[in-house]
Amino acid sequence: MTYIDIRVLVPICDACTHFEYRRYEEPRPLPNVFGGFWRDAYRALGMSRKQISYVARALKDGHWLPRCWGCGSKIDLAHEESFYTQHAAFSEFFGVDASNSKRIPKWMKKIVRDTLGSTCAACGQKARTIDHILARAKGGRTEVINLQPLCDQCNQQKADKDVDTVTITLTFPLRPPPSGESDLFIW
Length: 187
What we know:
Layout: E1 2-13, H1 14-23, E2 33-34, H2 38-44, H3 49-61, E3 83-89, H4 90-93, H5 106-116, E4 129-132, E5 147-150, H6 152-158, E6 164-170
Parallel strand pairs: 1-6
Antiparallel strand pairs: 1-3, 2-3, 4-5
């Protein structure tokens, strides 16, 4: 089985970053910084020249500025402000996080069944349980993207075994939303 860890790369302003570091007494490694050389940093993320030009135009025209994930303030890259980045869990970013739950909420089970059906993800039989792909005992969160329908037998066989993990990082908060249909492919 494979767990797909979807993360969203979000901008954090200088003030929020420094506040976070002061909160912890031990030094933490610095995240990526996007300042006067933001184009190079965007290129390092794998964005194409066309995508970077689109961001530069939106900044120049004043139609868009990235917003800090922490406080919501606008970060003005056109005036050489810098920002840091951090990874937010997909479910946290979209506000559907229930990672503190001991049980899977009914609404989450319904989403999993509506999306994936009621057949076992492992063997194709009728699934009676909803399972954490990455087990809670291994750090798995109770979130829709970490759940799958399993039959009782497959659920018992899987238990808390290790699974392969693939991490995908989404960068759309670092770019303006598309302005037209022709721009949809870059978002």
